Amino acid sequence: MSDIEEASDTLAEVNLDDTHNPLTENLESDPNSNLKDIVVIIGATVPTGFELTAADEVKEKLGSQSRISKDRGKIYFEISVEKLSQVHRLRSVDNLFVVVQEFTDYQFKETKEDALKDLEDLAKKLPWTDPLKVWKLNTNLKKRKTKHKKQNQQSSASKEKLNDDGGKDSATQKDADKELLDHAQNTLSLKSAEQNTEKTQEMILADDQSDGKDEFLNITGNENQAGNCKEGEAEAQVLKFRVTCNRAGDKHCFTSNDAARDFGGAVQDYFQWKADMTNFDVEVLLNIHNNEVVVGIALTEESLHRRNITHFGPTTLRSTLAYGMLRLCDPQPTDIIIDPMSGTGAIPIEGATEWPSCYHIAGDNNPQAVKRAANNICSLLKKNQNKESGTSWGIPIDTIQWDICNLPLRTSSVDVIVTDMPFGKRIGSKKKNWDLYPACLMEMSRICRPGTGRAVLLTQDRKCFAKALSKMGHLWQKGHTVWVNVGGLHAAVYLLKRTLERAGEKRSYW
């Protein structure tokens, strides 16, 4: 299991909105802790073209309005820290970061030296306090839960014995959860005596902008004091960091590396952190898009789209993109959803995870692809089994090897078709697509329910698809099109609706 899967599980299980969760109660009863009152802006990178889909998911699951950035592929929304766990459960986002400050119309100086000097000065003026608290909570929960999960896996045999003994396992689990939650609360709570001592030591920096620095030094100091008593060295408490700059626009007199170097140097001087480009604790993000500047702190170590697939193929689709395609077709309970060219099964597996009340079928003509899909399903079942302490109810999905032009399904038996069609680059060829696409659309129209059926199809071979669709206008009605970026390729996702007309007899396009 990857680190980000464990992080998502951590933050989902320690749900601060749960009325039975002792962490919220501890925060309310502790006068030194004001985490429950913190409201921050979260930035999320999403598949390009699916910004509106991601915004809809945020509104549906978090109740927050999202703002789509001018820089495509990013959205921003406001949450309280109590909803941090739910943010990590969003299915449409790739990476998350907490916003330190945003400038919608930042005026860069005309010369390179002056522009970079402004960025250096900016690091000392930013409101770091709340974002660093959120980062610290996020990090502590990930570390603690990772250790907790490893201990659970090692003692799985003894837990099975306890399950046969009338509630012993339940008591053990409650104690473990209490220990985890108490640790998170104790780590983030500032003792008044220690706080006064730190404030005295940092008196020389006592101005409005130093609050974030002082409070964060207190937090890290309190956590590390007990664990580092033997070492007793200040260097052991110094965090490692790096600055990542993403810049877009042609009116800047500096490069991304220039901005990251100078801004990072200022951050290092301000916090006395140690720069490390690979083994870093904190990743500071500097996003520059024309005159829009956003400074943030990363909350994810790797993309959240790496959540379902363990066996990859040459063209495995990202889970976040698969979710966006599925959401376009608005699955309803009891719908039969198929991916006739599923490859490693990214789309059906995402569908079965998020829409378990539907039935999903993953099919492909390549036996190796079908084997990879089956292995990915088995991996997901094992993951669910670990989470449920050895009990798994399975997921509503099947795999099958078939011919896309001759599907072993009854006419009008499928509600939704969602698939990633061959681009004609890594698999197949552009020439073959001229015969394959019309044959696929005809066979899909046969198995799809007239009037209510729909299809969501991804392809980069837009010219060939448009020609094939023009011959099927009596069977498929084209809805809206979403333009996406897939591995650097400009592709399109087409939403089609099945007309009431009955599909004719099969024709050979080969």
TrEMBL record:
One of its GO terms (molecular function) is tRNA (guanine) methyltransferase activity. Residues 141-172 are annotated as: Disordered. Residues 158-172 have a biased composition (Basic and acidic residues). It is found in: Cytoplasm. One of its GO terms (biological process) is tRNA methylation. Its main location: cytoplasm. This is THUMP domain-containing protein. It comes from Mauremys mutica.
